[in-house]
Fold this protein.
Amino acid sequence: MFGVWAPGEEVAKLTYFGLYALQHRGQESAGIAVSNGSQILVFKDMGLVSQVFDETSLGSLKGHIAVGHARYSTTGASVWENAQPTFRATAHGSIALGHNGNLVNTAEMAEMVAKLAVNGNGRATQVAATNDTDLVTALLAGQTGEDGSPLTVEQAAPLVLPQVKGAFSMAFMDEDTLYAARDAQGIRPLVLGRLERGWVVASETSGLDIVGASFVREIEPGELVAVDENGLRSTRFAEAKPRGCVFEYVYLARPDTDIAGRNVYLSRVEMGRKLAAEAPADADLVIATPESGTPAAIGYAEASGIPYGAGLVKNSYVGRTFIQPSQTIRQLGIRLKLNPLKEVIRGRRLVVVDDSIVRGNTQRALVRMLREAGAAEVHVRISSPPIKWPCFFGIDFATRAELIANGLSVEEIGKSLGADSLAYISTDGMIAATTIAKPNLCRACFDGEYPMELPEPELLGKHLLESETDADGVSTLTAGVGASDALQRP
């Protein structure tokens, strides 16, 4: 997710390159919204950033404010209607919004949206989107004051955002102003940067680097920032209770990103060092599952004294297998993604370092490939603890049944993978490597301690808003969303 306010700059192209640097956070769809001061235009489609946009489409997006998004679906199916930024008309203009994270009170918000008054003709406005982002957009667009008059986006945001529960880092805009907001726990990263003639917000510092923006600071948990011709202003809509996602350090963020003052690459190397101390192996060579396992493998080799080598070649043009939306694609993608260097592997005892095991499919196929390539032994080492609990805050493993570590011992998982041995880093070792205090990290997928109260299980889930649809395929939970004068401009 990326946003920019920069008069005189080609903001669509800046946003394109910002999204390109953040492509690892979502590969299903991409979109950019641009305002020229009088109207907002949105261009979005399914696919990678480089597939969705070209010179012609970017050239048509003229303006001085832009919001961009690359989607990884955690609420709502991977379809065009759910691509972001989402867009809504308001009584004062319009709003476009991009969101990184996942909300846990989606059902409650759907009820709130449904209660928005119908327009003057009594006709409810139907939408085909079935994601939590569209609900937030509708609430921001449809708020009214005590006297019934429609509120501006800036007036609505401090009222709506405290009611939004879960993980959210958002960039949104009306015709004149760029906004950024982060949930009170700060679960997902969000940073502020400075251009010579403007301001940038991005999901990671790597999004700032690519456009030449200097890092200013992180958007604080519970903070709302607004940027317009009058400059930058900040308000607080919730008390900060920091619980940043530790999985960002393990896997999700780019290694060249800094989060909460800690470089992700250095954290991963240190995880490897601690893993070597906690789980040594008698082996000839340390190799990584590229690319996310590479820093930890380097750290493991440094601490163990076992040489580090390149045993696997990665096809750089195949997307992350973990982030693909279907199990079938994940399994097919493993063979497309990695190929063993037989001359390096044959006859050697290997330590294979990976960042995590979620379902086990990648590692099982990997061990099999290494055996077929002639490896004498395969010892798997994982630089995060066993994942035993679902994530409801922006990572798509939402049921315990999906997780191989739920119900199996480490030894049993190792046998399932076909490895000679398997070991994970300890939770304390992983956390120490981040240098972030344990109470300030969300570790729920490892220890089940969630940073906020969760609703009943039936009110959670990726396809909650798609559970009931009408004959036209429109969710009945979101039918009538935004049906107010504030959302219907003539």
In short: DSSP finds 16 helices and 23 strands in the chain. Residues 117-125, 468-490 have pLDDT under 50 and may be disordered. The chain has two domains: 2-243+470-487, 262-440. The domain at 2-243+470-487 is CATH 3.60.20.10 (Glutamine Phosphoribosylpyrophosphate, subunit 1, domain 1).
